[in-house]
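tool_call: predict_structure(chain=1)
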Amino acid sequence: MREVPIGQTVISPPYHRVFKTPRELVQFIARMRELAGGKPAGFKLCVGSRRQVLAPCKAMVDEGVTPDFIVVDGSEGGTGAAPLEFADHLGTPLTEGLITVHNALVGTGLRDRIRLGASGKVATGADLVKRLAQGADYTNAARAMMFAVGCIQSQRCHTNKCPVGVATQDPRRGRALDVADKSERVHRYQRSTVAGALQIMAAMGVSDPAELRPHMPAAGSTRTRSAPPNSSTTGSSPGGCSPSRRPSGRPTGRPPAPTGSPCSRHSGMSGIGPTGRPG
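tool_result:
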């Protein structure tokens, strides 16, 4: 697919060529957002150490620039863009990584300005509730959606010979993917996943995703305690959302938040709307 000659090693750069320091990272984000006409700009990372999280946070404070979103990917997530040893043994699991980033943002007073996403084997309603309780504003799902489309894990993605037409550019093989049928399957899967999440929340006595907290059973057992969402501010705001979790107080010149609910806890791809019902 990449037309690389047989036997030639393909080495992806281990760092970004545009920036090399945390300060240059946030400056690049600001520049990219400006060039994009104010569209949301952010970055994704798999946490390796606390220092790798705290350094960008300090740079954001010093520069007065914050991304619109940060997606935390767990080491349990799948990727075809890293060597096998890297994927199997490097990086922090999603629970620890997500709580680390959330706590760092709360501690530096940046949490209310950044929407936090979570990805890495998010596939069930329980996964949605767990990640929202641990501090995420929304979740991303890739593998689960591929399965819903019809992926059978034949592990032939790189050969362009996917037998079910999911990962191929071959028109003949692509005919195996019935778009009308598979799109309905994906819709049913997403609808059932959100319904499962709402059922768990109802059993917990929670009617709104903003009410989920790390100490709740659905958050799972963790060795790292998450800072309470309102640890940097006091009081509460309408809708049950603490001020520190709301995307308010954006500095002059910052683009508006993405279209959706005014509360960051209710936005994103988890499919749960402002009232806790499927969006």
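agent: DSSP finds eight helices and four strands in the chain. Proceeding to next step.
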